[in-house]
């Protein structure tokens, strides 16, 4: 859910207490602190915990230019080493020799030199055509700007002309992290950086976890806008579109959907070894490992609400206990709303150690779910103000007044919440269909694992 939805949910919880509504009526706005408690779990994670979390590997397919803050970054030829294989860079230098050129095979190989050294440059097919279109006929003495990535063949390191990094680098790093998590039996966290190009556009890539085949597949996609809309004609050629790496150990992904990285900052992903119910040990993917822990628990709601109580008592707030309870409910609403999605949370630490999977409601209705929840919270606020108006009037003036909307309270709430109810029903149906596909995926996974075990012990 969006931050403003959580904030509104926290404010709605304060309206369940007529004493707090009375305080707001006479100009004491302290009860709106419940909105801050509704947002607090994300504030703690994104403003504090994320910066304290250790990253084991920085997976940066296309390092940014330090001044322009976009890719590719210029690199000196002497700095092109094997550890930079497949990452997107740019070199600038003078052509010293054309080793091979064939329009029929659509391939050119030449050497380029800068002030620090010399390297072979290779371009094939679409990259060959683009290179000639930009620079014309390449000959010794030409000064060229060439984007691409380092690669290795039997002659050593070369530079391959490209407008995107090769996805093999990402696949190698993810597989390495999974194997290391299994062998070291601890959480290994990687940061998947995005690829920001000139013109405020991003190169999209997808990380697909093929659990049955113990394979990490990475697909390099098109350029996209900051809103995620793909730009026509920017797909990479087929020969450098896919990278794949096998892992030595089995792994599982909680939700069988690829991880998509494009605009804004890329995610952090953790991997740790767990034991399944049948006794097998596998590596589990934990998306954004520093998120949805203690901060997103009912236990956390109790603790942070109790920290508020002595402050309210110290300043002499007359309804300290009501506001403390409302703050706790606002915090809990955040936990409940997040639990409706995919990731889930660790709901009852220290009694629970891992995230409890979410309900997977409305996987295709993210924006609609935010609207439905916000609309429901506004409905609750109207419902509570309407039903408590006579009581608040008595507290303020000693004189009763009728309800602004002369209707049964729960009927009013039901009518107001109709849009939310409709969207939630659609979300439940959408979630049921997703879980059906999800179960089919895991049945396939279990069948493949069983087959592999049979083969190992000679059962077939």
What is the tally of helical segments? Answer: 10
Low-confidence stretches: 448-460
Structural domains: how many: 3
Distance between the termini: 49 Å
Q: What sequence of helices (H) and strands (E) makes up the elements?
A: HHHEEEEEHEEHEEEEEEEEEHHHHH
Shape, principal axes of CA atoms: elongated
For the secondary structure, the number of strands is 16
Give the overall pLDDT as a whole number.
92
- Binned strand content: 15-25%
Radius of gyration from the CA trace? 29 Å
Structural class: alpha+beta
Percent of residues in helical segments?
40-55%
Explain how this protein is built:
A five-stranded mixed beta sheet has the order 1-8-15-16-13, covered by helices on one side. Strands 3-4-5-7-6 form a five-stranded mixed barrel. It is elongated, with a radius of gyration of 29 Å. The two termini are 49 Å apart. It has three domains: 3-50 and 293-448, no CATH class; 54-61 and 167-287, no CATH class; 89-161, OB fold (Dihydrolipoamide Acetyltransferase, E2P), CATH 2.40.50. A hairpin with a 5-residue loop joins strand 15 (268-275) and strand 16 (281-287). The chain contains ten helices and 16 strands. The model is unreliable at 448-460 (pLDDT under 50). The protein has 460 residues and is α+β, with helices and mostly antiparallel strands. Helix content is 40%, strand content 23%.
């Amino acid at each position: 859910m969006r931050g403003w939805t959580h904030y509104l949910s926290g404010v709605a919880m304060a309206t369940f207490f007529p004493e707090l509504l009375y305080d707001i009526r006479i100009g004491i706005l302290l009860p709106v602190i419940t909105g801050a408690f509704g947002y607090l779990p994300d504030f703690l994670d994104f403003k504090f915990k994320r910066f304290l979390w250790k990253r084991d590997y920085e997976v940066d397919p296309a390092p940014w230019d330090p001044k322009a803050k976009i890719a590719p970054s210029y690199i000196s030829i002497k700095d092109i080493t094997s550890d930079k294989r497949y990452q997107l860079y740019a070199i600038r230098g003078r052509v010293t020799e054309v080793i091979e050129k064939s329009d029929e095979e659509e391939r050119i190989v030449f050497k380029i030199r800068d002030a620090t050294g010399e390297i072979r440059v290779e371009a094939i097919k679409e990259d060959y055509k683009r290179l000639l279109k930009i620079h014309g006929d390449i000959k010794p003495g030409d000064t060229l700007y060439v984007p691409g990535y380092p690669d290795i063949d039997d002659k050593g390191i070369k530079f391959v002309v490209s407008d995107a990094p090769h996805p093999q680098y990402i696949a190698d790093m993810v597989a390495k992290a999974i194997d290391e998590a299994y062998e070291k039996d601890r959480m290994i966290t990687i940061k998947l950086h995005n690829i920001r190009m000139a013109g405020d556009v991003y190169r999209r890539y997808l990380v697909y976890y093929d659990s049955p085949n113990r394979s990490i597949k990475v697909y390099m996609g098109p350029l996209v806008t900051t809103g995620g809309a793909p730009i026509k004609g920017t797909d990479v050629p087929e020969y450098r579109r896919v990278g794949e790496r096998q892992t030595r150990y089995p792994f599982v992904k909680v939700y069988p959907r690829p991880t998509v990285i494009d605009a804004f900052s890329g995610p952090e992903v953790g991997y740790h070894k767990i034991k399944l119910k049948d006794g097998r040990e596998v590596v589990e993917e934990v998306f954004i490992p520093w998120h949805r822990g203690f901060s997103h628990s009912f236990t956390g709601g109790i603790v942070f609400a109790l920290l508020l109580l002595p402050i309210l008592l110290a300043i002499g707030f007359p309804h300290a206990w009501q506001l403390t309870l409302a703050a706790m409910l606002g915090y809990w609403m955040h936990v409940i709303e997040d639990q409706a999605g995919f990731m889930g949370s660790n709901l009852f630490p220290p009694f629970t150690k891992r995230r409890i999977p979410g309900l997977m409601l409305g996987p295709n209705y993210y924006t609609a779910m935010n609207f439905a929840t916000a609309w429901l919270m506004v409905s609750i606020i109207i419902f509570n103000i309407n039903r408590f108006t006579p009581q608040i009037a008595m507290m303020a003036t000693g004189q009763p007044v009728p309800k602004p909307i002369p209707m049964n309270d729960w009927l009013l709430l039901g009518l107001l919440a109709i849009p939310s109810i409709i969207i939630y029903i659609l979300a439940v149906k959408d979630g049921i269909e997703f879980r059906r596909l999800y179960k089919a995926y895991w049945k396939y996974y279990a069948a493949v694992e069983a087959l592999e075990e049979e083969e190992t012990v000679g059962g077939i």
